[in-house]
Amino acid sequence: MMTRTAYRPSVTTEKMAIIRGQLQGYLDNDVWDVTDPLFEKYGGGDSWTGLLKRITFSSLPVSIRDEVKFFFANQLVNESLSLSTMLNYSSSLGQLNLFLEKYYPRIESLVDIPYTQGLMKYKTTLTNTGIRITNKDGYNTAPITTFNSIFKFLSHFYDTRDEVEKDVWDLRKIPNARYTINKTSYLISFEKIPPLFRQIVKDYCMFALTYLSQGKLAEQLRGISCYIDFIYKNYPDWKDFNQLKRQDVEKYFIYFNKKNASLSASYKYKLLSSVKNFLEYLQRSERSESPLKFISTLFFKEDFPKISKQNENQIKYIPETVMNQLELLIKLNPLEITPPMDDNEKEYIPIVMLLMATGWRISDILNLRFQNCLITTNKGYYLQGDIPKTDVKNHRVPIDREIAKIIQFIIKQTEDKSTKENNPEGYLFVRTKGKRRGKPFTGASIQNALNRWATRYNIVDQNGETYHFGNHAFRHTKGVELINLGMNLTHIMKWFAHASPEMTLMYAKIADDTLRKEWEKAQEKKGPLLRVDLGDARVSEMNLDDDLIHWEYIRSNIEAVRVPLGYCLASKKEGCPYVVTPCLTCPNFCTTPENLPDFEREIEKIEEHIEMTKQYPIYNEKTKEQLTNLTKIRDQLNEGKMHRGDSARKTLLQAQKGKESVVI
């Protein structure tokens, strides 16, 4: 099989000039004393209390010394490593020198070492001198970590190729690539793809970058990597996919399912679909490597795992009892809580409050900019920000005065500590030091803090068990809350920037189901309801399945959006002039294929009623009219389409045209 020579970066005069430009003044010394005033702004200087105080480079070969100094200087200036970590790294420079003297005495740069071969020799050197290469937990010790960090840094520094030519892509350096700023994963690696197929996989990924996020692209790459691994092992003479036949695909499915038996059906579906997408791309773009047979003859829909449609039980929202416990916690003085919160955890409280108040995604909250996130009008306060996931600009939701005051405080705090260097993008919640300097907090740090609070301060669910928080659950919780407050579905769609009513309707179903469960639990505690019969002067226990007076009273709060066979998008105050054929001809009525069984049952009842009212022409005519409307909508739903009334359709189209709607 053909192979490609691995790329090895080389030292250039331009790169050497950058190194010399960095090593000016004190940093050019072969010994750095961290108690020097130069290091004060990095936590050193007179206030340094650590046992180690010096970083010594003089033991290294002259040709390598400047490269290692440049690594340390770069990490220092960018605050990528703390002073204590740098001092820990420097303690390994003596072992690195012994290794270089023994195996590579004539190299001019560390990148001249073949990495895999060199690392094995370095590990052997350390082991022979009695130095551990891993700790008791299996992690690399300082000598290995130092070698890997310096080598990786210099390899990247000397690599002058365009980003897409590399075997590891940093999506931050690729124009228009989509990645999430509140995550630490920016890299896409092709190193596991055999060199023969690596370029066509890169070409596919460049195409996929136009519509996929970093997470989805990594998912696709995992599926493609598994497939090519199968081809590489089972058809070692293949240089392309021209010979691919149906039996080869069937063989791959067996291989895939055996290798990935523990994965969920939905994730298997995604990985297998990525292979089909990849091969379709090759065929549609007329690549010479593409299969000669049509993809439709290679992959059948029956090949893919069946995944159930998402329902309201799969959407996690936070129970009201848990929300009450969390609200009580964050309203307390952090210093008066037992045990008290530390400073690092206190900074997460405003973010949690915004999640609760707005229902925005965590990425939306962490993308806020302090210069324009709070809007004040004569009607009140608004939170304003861009929605990175779907590229919606200046999206607004109303907030109350209390939340506005908190944002004003955070704005002032962030503005005071921000500079062009530590917060160039003007994020509201920003890290001004460390590896994430200039970037917002990570979403994982907020979720981890919430779950620490749940454990530490005993936030429990209805079963008394410690509750596990997920950031996105706040979004669903807000949706249910707005439904329960009686807000019109159209307004909720705009609040969440949904492109279609399906997700909003799901919140309505959750709210409907939750109301009944909560009511039934309340009745268990309260005791049986009593029915009073004034005619017979009798009082008797009411059967829950007979006459749910209280339940119907509670439901009336959301009946403006919930109707038989679907949901109404009209305001409560508008009333309904369509009572002859309830909702079916209303311009605000909306229903989805999910309601198809309800229509089938209703049509069956109407047909029976038509047969019964043959002798009553007036009633029969109205019933036939009802049947026509039901059948028309039923046929639409049967085709997998959603039915919207004219008013609902216009509202949605206007929202989409004005870019006020996005997909959740």
From TrEMBL:
Give one GO term, molecular function aspect.
Answer: DNA binding
**Record field: transmembrane:** none
> In Gene Ontology terms, what is a biological process of this protein?
DNA integration
Q: Which Pfam families match?
A: Phage_integrase
Q: Which UniProt keywords apply?
A: DNA recombination, DNA-binding
DNA-binding as a keyword?
A: yes
Q: Does the keyword DNA-binding apply?
A: yes
Task: Name the Gene3D superfamilies for this protein.
Answer: Intergrase catalytic core
**InterPro entries per the UniProt record, alphabetical:** DNA_brk_join_enz (IPR011010), Integrase-like_cat_sf (IPR013762), Integrase_catalytic (IPR002104), Tyrosine_recombinase_XerCD (IPR050090)
User: Domain Tyr recombinase: where?
Assistant: 317-520
* Tree of life domain: Bacteria
Protein family according to the UniProt entry: Belongs to the 'phage' integrase family.
The name this protein carries in UniProt is: Tyrosine-type recombinase/integrase
